[in-house]
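TOKENISED FOLD:
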Amino acid sequence: MRVTPDSDTAPHIVQVVGGLAGTAYVAWQTNAPAQGWATYLQTFTTAGGLIGSPAQISTAYGTSSVWPGDTFGLATLPGNQIALSWGSANNGSSTSEIYAAVVNAVDFQLSDNPTSGSVAPGSSTTTTVSTTAIGGDTETLTLSASGLPAGASAGFTPATISPGGSSTLTITTTASTPPGSYPITITATGAANTHTTGYTLTVTNPGGIVNGGFETGTLSGWTASGPATGVTTSGPHSGTYAALLGSTSPTNGASSIQQTFTAPTGSSQLSFWYNVTCPDTVNHDWATATLKDNTTGQTTTVLPKTCVASSGWRQVTASIVAGHSYTITLTNRDDNHRGNPTYTKYDDVTVS
């Protein structure tokens, strides 16, 4: 990277290669009257901190002529850029020019491919973890994975690499690993630098929906998120229990439950029942449901955003393909407005 020399005070924008943390060096020239030009080198981090005083790299006069506080400003901008702005030196009695800016980032980049995978309980999946060296980085990197579901393990072959190398990550599940979608964090740890990348593991349910009638009295088999999720015995569609998302008191935001399953042989349809109480408007509160085909990557909104004062029990059906992996997500959204809480019951989620 190079900045064209000039003597004005306008900021100069410099692109930081890769946007990685490292050390940048800015050289400039300054001309004290009757003493000629001298060149100085200032070191700073790409995060914006100056390192020490500038060093004189050509002989002309004493090194005390230019100081960080009165010669040079630095700001971090969006898009991995830094702004270099020039100020006066020697109390305004000399002219100065920015000469060049160079980033020396000794680091590495980390990635994985593919970034997601689906397995049935008891099976395994793999991804390739790759690194790219920046600035000649040669440190040894130790690989690890976190966020694994119960009963799952991770192994790297090889377990340590150098920047520029790659490794195969194998994630192995057991028969007891619960279905669901799990964000896995892959970490490469070196003596100087550490980076992470993400992988999404989907564990399917080979036997269709688990606890679709919520008759366990819990949300077992489902992954819950949001401010209010649970079960209720008040007016289920059938049996004793139904899922209850939201509350008779205001809640803030979306409450959801989801389950990942594999459509069994011979199945072609998913269905569920919902009962929404929404005294607000669909602009603020709603019930909704989506079905993602993990095999094809396509997501379908099977229940568009719905808000009615009292819907009663209504059925939703959607086509599925036997052998495909799916994730069903059931949601209730309330805007936390006092006096009109929205809540939704879901029940009898089945495949046939």
User: Anything to note?
Assistant: The chain is about 0% helix and 55% strand. The two ends are 63 Å apart (CA to CA).
